[in-house]
Amino acid sequence: MGKQKDRYKAWGDASMKAWQEDDVEAQMELWADGCTYTAAHPFGEHSESQGLEAFRRSFEGMTANWSDKKLIENQLLSANKERGIFHTWQSWVSKDGSEWACTFINIVSLDENDRCTKYKEWNVAKTREDEAKDSN
User: pTM of the full predicted structure?
Assistant: First the structure.
């Protein structure tokens, strides 16, 4: 693996570990002060957060709704000096007991200290119930 792929893979692995463990502080260490986080949902809505405190609130809000998480796979597809592209599959059980599955495409930009300056994700999240309806 080349230098750029190594640094993006290390960032992705650390981010997923922090997510898996609900470790807000470990997650925050991976992000630069002026970071931008954009969730671009494929069917219309999207949201954007800027700065560490906005990202902290977003991450804490996400993790507060989960009771059990599983990272199925986090695959680095490509990387160069400007960005890394990931494909990630995750599942979780929310506090209300509903089971969710999600697939993501993420584009991540890192600074010279390997902290994320820009993160954009496209995701499709569905409950197991929604998946069953879609297959009928």
Answer: 0.82
How distant, in Å, are the alpha carbons of 8, 65, 69, 114, 129 from that of 107?
Answer: 10, 25, 22, 14, 29
Residue 52 contacts residue 42 (beta carbons within 8 Å):
no
The DSSP line for 63-131 is: HHTEEEEEEEEEEEEEE-SS-EEEEEEEEEEETTS-EEEEEEEEEEEE-TTS-EEEEEEEEEEEEHHHH
- In terms of residues, how long is the chain? 136
| Domain ranges, ordered by start, for the chain | 3-135
Residues 19-49 pLDDT 10s:
888 888 999 999 999 999 888 876 667 788 8
| Top-level class of domain 3-135 | alpha beta
- Measure the CA–CA gap between 70 and 57, rounded to whole angstroms: 22
Euclidean distance between CA atoms 20 and 1, whole angstroms: 25
